[in-house]
Amino acid sequence: MLKVENLTKKFEESYALKDVNFSLKKGEIHGLVGANGSGKSTLMNILFGSGHIKDTGGYSGRIFIEEENITISSTLDALRHGIGLVHQEFALLGSLDISSNIKINRENIYPLAGKILGREFGIVDTKKNKEDAKNALSKIGVNIDPSIKVSNVSINMKQFIEIAREIDNTNLKILMLDEPTASLNQEDTRILLKSLRAIADTGISIIFVSHRLEEVTQICDRVTVLRDGEVISHYSKEEFEINKIALDMIGIQVVQTKRKRTVGNRDKIISFQNVQVTQGDKLYKEISLDIKKGEVLGITGLAGYGQEIFGYGLMGLYDMKGNVFINGEKVIPGDVGLISKKGIYMLPDERKEMGLLLGSSIWENVVFGSYEQHKEFLKYPKMKGLSFLNHGVIDNYSSKLVEDLNIKVRDIYQPIKELSGGNQQKVCIARALTINPEILFVGEPTRGIDIYSKEIVLEMLLKMNEEKGMTIVISSGEIGELKRICDRIVIMYGGEVFDILEPDVDDEVFSLAISGRRVESYEKN
Ligand SMILES: Nc1ncnc2c1ncn2[C@@H]1O[C@H](COP(=O)(O)OP(=O)(O)OP(=O)(O)O)[C@@H](O)[C@H]1O
């Protein structure tokens, strides 16, 4: 179906891809793996004719589709050749319904469409659009009313809608998926993976990019490993071995981080008492939770069940009402100024909303907002915000953090918008660590991050907890990670705190709790 030969892409003097050879068979699911910044997105962006490839000098090398040597210089070229891409970041229009999003630019038009006063016009056949949308969604195992507005659906569902939009294209030959399961819960991941196999069986070829090697080895027919823009190895199904693939990706053995647990009875640092949280048309009622000083608290559950509501509510991203106490003192949720002064910082899980200063450099993003905590960043600390910055100190500090967190950059002056997604994510973590809050709320801290850097990020969080006594609240769907590093894990179910579990209880207990059941009822059944 596809063959690329000596594909090379340079950004100024540095290679993002170097002489990459890669092939994709008809109906194959091909895993593309590599550390953050290894060139996966660049490869897909070239194949999808992304503007930023052209704007930065194009690519060299040859691309063949079904033996035909083609040039891809625009998205239109890619679409014409039947290539579709689903990005990590969603590009849906929230104010439109699901079917309008799926049929965008491919709307069904009534045959009576024609010309009025010389202008072309058409009337959209919304009924047919809905049928098509339903059909595309059913191919990926989803049954939902396509008239629902996209702004009212969960992140899980948005991912399915994005994929359905590509599937709806009858000309589709190659579907490229950039971390399609990163925002899905376990059940939806299972549904998606199963559907991808069914889609591949219809003859569509799939490029599957993911940092979750278990999924890659489960679903793919072959895997190609990239490291620093070069192909390091190819594997076919019978040769798959996660450790071997990981070693090829990173170059060194990855050691899993684990917390040495030392919790005793601790004082409450934050207490949510019967709070009510509203997010869009969702309402969470009568929620209570105590967070203990110095603990690492995990919050998990199926997507949409509210694991993020505490941080988001406290910081005013969702509307929270009710009694919230910080160190025994009542605060008004959403009063961000006061809450920040009390040493609370939140890093939300939606990357786009993380507040990266996209036009600024890495160092600016790392130290932004932390001059209070790091007076050494200022030449004249007494002048506060009016002081010149102490660039020597800031440069050393940012360079060290970039190195410690394994962030792949040219130098700390590089604009953050030039970094790969995973490396941008790590800069967000770097900023949170620099702000050094007393309490850190962090959502999905390892999403989009490669297996090696994941461990570094987890290790850094633990270090901040152990050495600085930082209380850390992590909302995440990565239960395995939470079990390794948390003191307690809150399970949200149906918009309530369903249970709080010790991290070393059986996996089975966790799985049951996540689906709203308890062990006793399981045993009875
Ligand atoms: N516009 C740009 N200018 C300069 N360098 C760039 C630009 N876009 C990407 N790069 C560099 O190209 C390299 C490959 O990035 P790419 O986004 O392809 O990595 P990736 O494998 O997709 O990473 P991730 O797993 O983090 O998504 C990185 O070093 C990145 O900094």
TrEMBL record:
Alphabetic keyword roster: ATP-binding, Nucleotide-binding
SUPFAM superfamilies registered for this protein in UniProt: P-loop containing nucleoside triphosphate hydrolases (SSF52540)
Entry-linked SMART domains: AAA (SM00382)
Gene3D superfamilies in the cross-refs: P-loop containing nucleotide triphosphate hydrolases (3.40.50.300)
Protein name, UniProt field: ABC transporter domain-containing protein
Transmembrane segments: none
Origin superkingdom: Bacteria
Organism expressing this protein natively: Clostridium formicaceticum
InterPro entries: AAA+_ATPase, ABC_carbohydrate_import_ATPase, ABC_transporter-like_ATP-bd, ABC_transporter-like_CS, P-loop_NTPase
UniProt-listed PANTHER family: CARBOHYDRATE TRANSPORT ATP-BINDING PROTEIN MG119-RELATED, GUANOSINE IMPORT ATP-BINDING PROTEIN NUPO
Residues covered by the ABC transporter domain: 2-253, 265-519
